[in-house]
Amino acid sequence: MSRKAIKSINWAALAERIPESEKNALAAFRAKSEQHLRRMVANPESPPKIDWSYYKKNVTTAGLVDQFQKQYEALSIPYPADKYTAEIESEEKQMEKKMEEFIQEVDKAIGESQREIDSIKSMLPFSEMTMEDYRDMYPELAFNPEKPTAWPHTPETQPDEDPEPKQNGH
Fold first, then answer.
1. Which of 76, 79, 155, 170 could cross-link to 1 by cystine, CB 3.0-4.6 Å?
2. Using DSSP, how many helices (H) and how many strands (E) does the chain show?
3. Chain centroid, CA 170 distance in Å
4. For residue 14, what pLDDT is reported?
5. How many CA atoms lie less than 13 Å away from 165 in the CB half-sphere?
6. How far apart are CA 35 and CA 18, in angstroms?
7. Are 23 and 11 in contact (CB under 8 A)?
8. How many C-beta atoms lie closer than 10 Å to residue 52's C-beta?
9. Does position 156 have pLDDT exceeding 70, yes or no?
């Protein structure tokens, strides 16, 4: 397995999508991410090759270089196993499904709002509307002479419909 690194991250696009209160955390994360990337790029992916023939010619102890070469070539340091990519990809697929559902819900709400806007635009302007037109369009808000209201004409300030007679214990 070899090491992998993200070559470029669109930090500006990320910054546009997060709330203002999280900008400092993003800046700290970006600095840490770039520091790790610099450290990783500073080292080669594979160690430099050793010129064993040079050491065999210049080291006088018999068999020492062969022994080191054998041990060095037998040395294997495993790269940590990738345990998280599959989990992240499955979570990404779940989030894509949720986003699709959300988009459908929002599109439905936008459609309903657009229909309401269209109905409002098609209405007769209030300046040209008569009291009868207003009553026909908004029967619950229009003045009803059979049921007069008291100022300030809000539901909570109106007297009760059928006030119960108060009894004094007689």
1. 79
2. 6, 0
3. 68
4. 86
5. 4
6. 22
7. no
8. 14
9. yes
Residue 40 · residue 3 · CB < 8 Å: yes
Q: Answer whether the bond into residue 165 is a cis peptide, omega within 30°.
A: no
Tokens describing residue 152: 């300030």
The H-or-E segment that residue 105 falls in is helix 85-121
Under a CB-based contact definition with an 8 Å cutoff, are residues 46 and 2 in contact?
Answer: no
Taking the CA atoms of 58, 59, 61 and 62 in sequence, report the sign of the dihedral they define: negative
User: Which residues does 158 contact at the CB level (< 8 Å), separation at least 6?
Assistant: 149, 150
166 HSE (CA, 13 A, CB side): 1
pTM: 0.41
Q: Which residues contact 69 (CB under 8 A, 6 or more apart)?
A: 50, 52
How far apart CA 36 and CA 4 sit, in angstroms, is 12
Burial class (CB in 10 A: 0-12, 13-18, 19+), 134: middle
Q: Which tokens go with 19? A: 């709330």
At residue 61, the 3 state secondary structure works out as coil
Q: What percent of the chain has pLDDT over 70?
A: 90
